[in-house]
Every structure is written in C-alpha cells, then in structure tokens.
Amino acid sequence: MDYAILRKRMLEEQLIPGGITNQRVLDAFRKIERHKFIPEEMRTSAYADFPVPIGEGQTISQPYIVALMTECLDLTELLSLPPLLTYPRLSLNNQTKMENLFYQKAGDSAKF
Fold first, then answer.
1. Which secondary structure element, helix H or strand E, spans residue 28, and what is its range?
2. Alpha carbon 48 to chain centroid distance?
C-alpha cells in the first residue's frame, strides 16, 4: 500500500475541497503518517473520510474533522498539550510512535 498516495488524495479530495486553507495545517497533514497510529488490519482506511477504530473501543476521527478543529485553533506558536489519551495501552503505544515522528517530548506533554 502506498500511503503517500493516500495522504495526497486525502488532501486533494477531502481537506482542500472541504475548505481547509491554513498552510500549516495542510503541511502537517502532508507529513504525519496517520496510518502508523491505526491497527495494521485497519491501515488501508487511515486516510478515508470516516472515523477508524484504534482499539479499546475508541476511534480516530476522520481527517477532515481533525483538520477543521486544528485550523479553528488558529495556532501561531508552539503549543504544549497534556497527554492525548487516557487509555494506558493506547497511550503507551502512541507515545512511542509520536517520539519516532517529529514530535518533541517535554515532561508529560507533547510539543507540536
């Protein structure tokens, strides 16, 4: 599966036509390998226009909703967030994935 192509399609077919215009948001969606946060058996749906189960009865929201919420934050500087997940098994699993991407860990917070 070529996830880079799926990411590109997500931008061209969902985010940009849906009105996402913030270049920083679009750049983040170009870079973040969303499929790495999704169980292997569901990875082909990682960039689809619907929520995807990620375990523990939880889902990751569809890309457009995440992009819209991020754009609405209108961030202009580095943001420090508390831990993102309250399910220990999901949190530990994704902490490792985030550290392997481009996030910087600061104490118990993730900096973007």
1. helix 23-31
2. 12
| 55-84 b/e (C-beta count within 10 Å ≥ 16 → b) | eeeeebebbbebbbebbeeeeeeeeeeeee
61 is catalytic: yes
82 vs 16 pLDDT, higher one: 16
Domain ranges for the chain: 1-76, 78-112
Name the pTM for this structure. Answer: 0.71
At residue 55, what are phi and psi to the nearest 5 degrees?
Answer: 110, 165
User: What is the amino acid identity at position 102?
Assistant: F
Catalytic residue among 45, 61, 91, 109: 61
> Which tens digit of pLDDT belongs to each residue from 75-86?
777 665 555 555
